[in-house]
């Protein structure tokens, strides 16, 4: 594949960039859904992200992306046979697996290795895309067009972090901890609510309507097409500074503190919006932590919450089929209501 | 450059409008050659016929004989596009052999999509994705080495034969196609009159051509005004105008180039007006220097356009401004298909979706093993295949021994004994069946004088339906609207007992909140659909709603809201039946049925028997 467009050179679309970085900092967020108009740089941003992130450690030839210290049972490479040593530790790019729309179930979960079964008569497991995406990202472009039975598979794996294969006489479990990133255009079909709810963050991207920014987009794209290497070079420093922010944020993430009063108000907000279940609140908390960590702070403030909550909550609201305005205004009103209460108390 | 010698290089002359279309199409072909896969491709609006064939052969000549042409059928499977395992070759050689997909085969060439308006959205998305990343990934399972990502840089030519506004090329594809050409109005005589143009020999150096900020701004405005706010479209516009300027050997984009670009990329043009022909060369010389693409200096780029605007005299871009004004007021020819961003969806207009989607399901209960693949990329059931092959092994081994004995020694040594002799006849596939029940949702007008009688008949129909569809596990629900709102009288159920109990003693009379009824029905239908069942809506009404959504008696508002809700039914592809129960057929019901996309039935005496017949037929259809 040719070199991807640098992440820092993407004009505007701050929400989308922030959401992606937050998912990179906190893998437990549960992924990002990017829904919006065509030609807004959705795929570009996701592909750029993989290039930007720091590399991960694994062993050479490992197809399950095992951590060198904790090899998985299913991996024949990291569990060296008696007497031999496992291969050396290498650093690889953060996995960013593109899930093609036409993918089959076998390709996603993994299946019996037909070649080995036919040629050598051995029963061997051929890992699929879920194994390849372990410790990284699984990107589904046009996620709303994906077949239902595949969506079910993905949901199951994403929620449990484990891929269980029980087929063709195989019985395999391996880790599949990845952040789902989906993009799509809602005009071509909606997403099932079960899947919608599973994405931690949802971003609504719109075509840029600021003239200067539009022209800037065209300029940068032109420069990129004309000479990709030089263009990436000129943006390398900005990319590196974002990478450092992510690395730093990952370090301090576990120490980020949420004051009790902010937590209480978060619960108020979720209750006020009538959001079912705890997942919304939990994700909101994690997202706020990630956001504060990205900013280099060790405490979450209310302004974090009011900034982040549209990303976390909009897609979890019960939808009114006749409401064209969307749910963003409702979330904003609820935030304003909770903020106003602080003013009084 | 233009052998017509008409003075207009590529402008449409007012008297021969159609010639403009043909010339534009030829120009688009030239641009394709110059721009390469960067331009995405061509959206060709043309029906089958001589003109189209002539155009395509002209294009083929222009691109040279070495460029591969790959024709993609509209019913193409995903594995055919992306490549899959070649089963016969795999079985023969004993290791996995992959076939290249159509997209990889089209590398450095043309991917021709006839009947692009019939393309499924998912297929279009796959092609669009390949256009973006310029490689293909195989969806099939196999060793990593066997099917690695393959290069796929290609032009797409999507032939759009859409006849009605409901058919359209999937936006995932049309958004990525840089050029638009419409051959529908080109006459054959026009085609034969134009001579073969001499090929431009040297590749044009269009990358050097500058485009000034005011022109980009205006192009952006025009694109937004035509409803194509997508950044891709704007990029195509600037690219094409730069190429056009290069063809005229100008060093910066003039207004004529920009105008031509709007025609080629957006399909809009000012009618009854010759394209302005002023030469902007002298001016171009001085405006080229400062605002070159300056990716490393975003600040400079942001401040630049302002000063440019002041420097430049406004009348330079009068025609473009005029075009913008015309687009904004809507007095323009050849517009709106591109901007139809939320077109009416019709289930039947896509291939593969019509008919029986669930018989060869991809999930569900395994029902049987069969010899033919239930869907294109099905994987054989290995155990069943081996079992099918087992009894033949002795015979096949003997056959093989006989065949081997006829071969030379060298060949005998080369062919080693396989573990099991499996032939094509042995392949077995698992069939799955996925039950999708349907739910009939009755929305009954319980207002007015005839309410009681009508309700009674509806109840009868529901009971009849339930007793009939018990075997099929279909469900029935009922919503009644009267007075100020609608209520769900019977939630989706398949229990006859429950239905009888709930439907006993239903009140009637009062005004008609038709909107509320439809709205409630839509909500219920969406829930039902989410649960995996197919809703069939049955509306019984005389079409006279007089209560608005908020419960106020406001006829005009009610009518307005009714239109909105009804069009939602259509856009969500609800299968619906509208039963007119007025004494005489009414226009209002007919137009409502049309907006909803419903089948209209007229039952003056809506008796239980005929009603349940009508609904039953529709339920059967919904099951496919």
Kindly describe this structure.
- The complex is a heterodimer of chains A (345) and B (624).
- With 345 residues, chain A is α/β, with parallel strands linked by helices.
- Chain A folds into two domains: 7-53 and 93-205, P-loop containing nucleotide triphosphate hydrolases (Rossmann fold, 3-Layer(aba) Sandwich), CATH 3.40.50.300; 254-344, Orthogonal Bundle (Helicase, Ruva Protein, domain 3), CATH 1.10.8.
- Chain A is 46% helix and 15% strand.
- Chain A has 13 helices and eleven strands.
- In chain A, strand 8 (162-167) and strand 9 form a beta hairpin.
- The longest helix of chain A is centred in the C-terminal third of the chain and has 25 residues, at 228-252.
- Chain A is globular.
- The mean pLDDT of chain A is 82.
- Chain B has 624 residues and is of the alpha/beta class.
- Chain B folds into four domains: 16-200, Rossmann fold (3-Layer(aba) Sandwich); 204-355, Helicase, Ruva Protein, domain 3, CATH 1.10.8; 365-433, no CATH class; 438-623, von Willebrand factor, type A domain (Rossmann fold, 3-Layer(aba) Sandwich).
- Chain B has 23 helices and 17 strands.
- In chain B, the strands form five sheets. Chain B has a six-stranded mixed sheet, sandwiched between helices. A five-stranded parallel sheet of chain B has the order 2-5-8-1-9.
- Chain B is flat and about 85 Å long.
- Residues 1-18, 141-146, 272-315 and 334-357 of chain B have low confidence and may be disordered.
- At the A-B interface, strand 5, helix 4, helix 6, helix 8 and helix 9 of A face helix 3, helix 6, helix 9, helix 10 and helix 13 of B.
């Amino acid at each position: 594949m040719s070199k991807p467009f640098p992440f820092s050179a993407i004009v505007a679309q701050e929400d989308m960039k922030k959401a992606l970085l937050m998912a990179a900092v906190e893998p437990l967020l549960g992924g990002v859904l990017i829904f919006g108009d065509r030609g807004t740089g959705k795929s570009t941003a996701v592909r750029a992200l993989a290039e930007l992130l720091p590399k991960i450690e694994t062993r050479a030839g490992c197809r399950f992306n095992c951590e060198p210290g904790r090899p998985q049972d299913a991996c024949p490479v990291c569990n060296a046979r008696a007497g031999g040593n496992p291969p050396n530790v290498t650093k690889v790019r953060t996995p960013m697996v593109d899930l093609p729309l036409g993918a089959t179930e076998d390709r996603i979960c993994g299946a019996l290795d037909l070649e080995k079964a036919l040629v050598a008569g051995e029963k061997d497991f051929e890992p699929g895309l879920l194994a390849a995406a372990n410790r990284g990202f699984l990107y589904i472009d046009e996620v709303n067009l994906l077949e239902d039975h595949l969506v079910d598979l993905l949901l199951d794996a994403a929620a449990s972090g484990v891929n269980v294969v029980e087929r063709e006489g195989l019985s395999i479990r391996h880790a599949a901890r990845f952040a789902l990133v989906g993009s799509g255009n809602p005009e071509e079909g909606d997403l099932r609510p079960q899947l919608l709810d599973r994405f931690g963050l949802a971003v609504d991207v719109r075509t840029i309507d600021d003239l200067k920014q539009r022209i800037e987009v065209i300029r940068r794209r032109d420069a990129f097409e004309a000479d990709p290497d030089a263009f990436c070079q000129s943006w390398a420093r900005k990319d590196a500074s974002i990478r450092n922010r992510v690395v730093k944020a990952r370090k301090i993430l576990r120490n980020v503190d949420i004051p009790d009063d902010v937590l209480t108000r978060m619960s108020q907000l979720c209750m006020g919006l009538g959001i079912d279940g705890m997942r919304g609140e939990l994700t909101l908390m994690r997202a706020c932590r990630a956001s504060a960590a990205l900013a280099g702070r060790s405490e979450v403030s209310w302004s974090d919450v009011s900034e982040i909550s549209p990303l976390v909550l909009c897609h979890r609201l019960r939808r009114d089929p006749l409401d064209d305005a969307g749910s963003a205004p409702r979330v904003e009103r609820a935030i304003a209501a909770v903020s106003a209460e602080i003013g009084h108390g | 450059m233009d052998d017509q010698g008409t003075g207009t290089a590529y402008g449409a002359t007012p008297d021969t409008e159609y010639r403009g279309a043909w010339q534009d199409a030829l120009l688009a072909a030239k641009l394709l050659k110059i721009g390469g896969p960067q331009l995405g491709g061509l959206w060709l609006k043309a029906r089958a016929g001589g003109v189209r064939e002539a155009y395509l052969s002209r294009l083929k000549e222009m691109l040279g004989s070495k460029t591969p042409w790959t024709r993609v059928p509209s019913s193409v499977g995903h594995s055919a596009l992306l490549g899959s395992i070649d089963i016969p070759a795999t079985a023969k050689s004993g290791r996995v052999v992959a076939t290249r997909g159509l997209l990889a085969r089209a590398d450095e060439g043309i991917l021709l999509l006839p009947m692009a308006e019939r393309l499924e959205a998912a297929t279009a998305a796959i092609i669009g994705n390949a256009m973006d990343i310029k490689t293909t990934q195989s969806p099939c399972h196999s060793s990593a080495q066997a099917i690695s990502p393959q290069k796929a840089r290609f032009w797409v030519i999507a032939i759009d034969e859409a006849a009605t506004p409901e058919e359209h090329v999937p936006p995932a594809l049309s958004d990525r196609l840089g050029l638009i050409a419409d051959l529908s109005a080109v006459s054959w005589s026009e085609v034969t009159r134009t001579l073969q143009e001499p090929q431009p020999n040297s590749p044009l150096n269009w990358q050097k051509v500058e485009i000034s900020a005011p022109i980009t701004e205006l192009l952006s405005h025009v694109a937004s005004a035509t409803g194509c706010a997508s950044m891709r479209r704007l990029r195509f516009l600037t690219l094409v105008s730069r190429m056009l300027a290069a063809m005229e050997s100008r060093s910066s984009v003039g207004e004529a180039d920009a105008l031509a670009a709007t025609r080629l990329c957006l399909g809009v043009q000012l009618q009854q007006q010759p394209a302005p022909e002023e030469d902007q060369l002298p001016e171009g010389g001085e405006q080229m220097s400062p605002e070159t693409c300056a990716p490393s200096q975003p600040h400079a780029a942001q401040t630049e356009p302002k000063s440019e605007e002041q420097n430049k005299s406004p009348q330079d871009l009068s025609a473009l401004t005029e075009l913008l004004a015309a687009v904004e007021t809507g007095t323009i020819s050849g517009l709106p298909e591109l901007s139809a961003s939320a077109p009416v969806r019709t289930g039947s207009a896509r291939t593969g979706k019509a008919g029986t989607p669930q018989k060869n399901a991809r999930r569900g209960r395994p029902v049987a093993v069969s010899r033919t693949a239930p869907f294109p990329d099905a994987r054989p059931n290995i155990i069943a295949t081996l079992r099918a092959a087992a009894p033949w092994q002795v015979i096949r081994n003997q056959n093989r021994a006989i065949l081997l004995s006829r071969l030379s020694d060298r060949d005998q040594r080369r062919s080693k004994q396989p573990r099991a002799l499996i032939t094509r006849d042995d392949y077995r596939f698992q069939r799955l069946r996925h039950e999708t029940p349907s739910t009939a949702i009755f929305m009954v007008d319980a207002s007015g004088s005839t309410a009681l009688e009508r309700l009674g008949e509806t109840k009868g129909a529901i009971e009849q339906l339930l007793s009939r569809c018990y075997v099929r596990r279909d469900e029935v629900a009922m919503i009644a609207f009267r007075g100020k709102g609608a209520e769900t009288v019977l939630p989706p159920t398949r229990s006859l007992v429950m239905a009888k109990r709930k439907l006993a003693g239903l009140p009637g009379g009062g005004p008609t909140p038709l909107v509320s009824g439809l709205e409630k029905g839509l909500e219920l239908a969406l829930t039902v659909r989410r649960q995996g069942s197919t809703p069939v809506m049955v509306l019984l009404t005389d079409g006279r709603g007089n209560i608005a959504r908020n419960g106020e008696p406001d006829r005009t508002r009610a009518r307005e809201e009714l239109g909105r809700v009804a069009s939602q039914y259509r856009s969500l592809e609800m299968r619906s039946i509208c039963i007119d129960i007025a004494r005489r057929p009414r226009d209002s019901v007919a137009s409502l049925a049309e907006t909803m996309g419903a089948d209209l039935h007229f039952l003056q005496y809506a008796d239980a028997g005929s009603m349940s017949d009508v609904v039953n037929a529709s339920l059967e259809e919904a099951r496919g």
